[in-house]
Amino acid sequence: MQSSEKNNSAQFLEHQLQETITLLEKQQLETSLVERGPVANYELVEAMLQNQHQARLQEKFAHLHPADIAFILESLPLDQRKTAWDAIKTLHDGQVLLEVSDAVRHTLISGMEAEELATVAGKLNTDEIADIAADIPKRTMLKILRSLNSKERKHLNAILSYQENQVGALMDFGMITIRDDLNLKAIIAYIRKLGKLPSHTDKLFVVDQHDKVQGVLPLQRLLTHSPTQQVADVMVTDFIHFRIDQDAAEAARAFERYDLISAPVVDKKGKLQGRLCVDNILDFIREKTDEDLLTQAGVGEEEDLFSSVWKSARNRWGWLLINIATAFASTRIIGVFEDIILQLVALASLMPIIAAMGGNTGNQTSMLIIRSLALGQITPSNIRRLIKKELTLAVINGTFIGLIMGLLSLLLYQDSALSAVMATAMFINLLVAVVVGLGIPLLRHKFGKDPAVGTSVILTAITDSMGFFIFLGLASLFLIK
Hints:
Blueprint: H1 2-5, H2 9-36, H3 42-61, H4 66-74, H5 78-88, H6 95-99, H7 102-110, H8 114-121, H9 126-132, H10 138-147, H11 150-160, H12 167-170, E1 177-178, H13 184-194, E2 203-207, E3 213-218, H14 219-224, H15 231-234, E4 242-243, H16 248-258, E5 262-266, E6 272-277, H17 278-296, H18 309-336, H19 338-343, H20 346-374, H21 383-413, H22 416-446, H23 455-478
Helix pairs in contact: 2-3, 3-5, 8-10, 9-11, 16-17, 18-23, 20-22, 20-23, 21-22, 22-23
């Protein structure tokens, strides 16, 4: 049954989550009944019941992939999550810690003893330890470092020395290196002696005596060419590689463009430092996407779905306070023209339309720019043409939408002057919206800031305020005598 359900991942995960919740609720009920029962041998009964509960949960999670377990833990409230984690945390050797979100990982690690955490983390590879290092307490991290050999310690320190948006922070060391003066028969014998290949191995890296990468040998060529041929005659010399300090976003685009599975990572001198694999790239893209979605909505990435109300409130206050300030500014603009609105009530019903259209237009432009910046499609050579194109489009859309709104206003209120003001205000506000939608992400990008952060909030505030100001200002000039 489970194998067929796995064909539908969402249905399978939902089924496993519901079974886990049912099991946890049943265990909670059993515990409460024992607490209400006779006092005699209470501690013994409680211990036996606890062992039974852990055995059931371990049996439940025994055949699940760590990623599926991570999904279940992320979907459980804090008390049930702790119960489930206490039962399974030593069973999966830390792999679940790698799969859960940063916020949930923090809650899981915070409830673990230092010795216990060091044991679990010590079973991970150095690149995997680096992925969770930020959440591990310093004392525990020192204990983990002392448990590693000199080579592993060197690898871990190398990864941790790079920022999270650099290729070096994403690389691992599970590659096979060979020399170009060997024949394919010797390479095949070497691999057979190893017994297994590192995960995501689709090519071997050819290096010289100084560890400089000379080329790559795809496994396909290794298997399809004559065993007597030399590596130098079969290897690919025109290959994709990445610098260790290169932007990870650039590497992600290259992986997508060239359908890569793995690629060598080199330093400035071309010496092999590690490899970059598609699984790390996918994790980077997912985390970056989640982060962008949350920050655009004014929610920090560190917020857990089931974190405490107080923590969630503090996490969201920043942008909410900014929204209050921008909304108050908009109301002050309306207050300046209060007498005009009282004289012509129709203005009050038309104002929201101007602001809403400006916000939608600006968001269309800003989302396009943010996406293009993320994909690296905007360069100094094409930015002028892009701005010219968007401004031209704004003039066309402003004219078209302005005429439509002017005609609708004329049909509703039978006032040609009001209709002309409506059309003109719509035209100007759409121009302003496009300029703002272009300017905010481009300027943030120019100064090294994330173009997605705060753009929507700032854009909405400006288009609302300017929409009210333009519309009511034109009305005061041409409608009120």
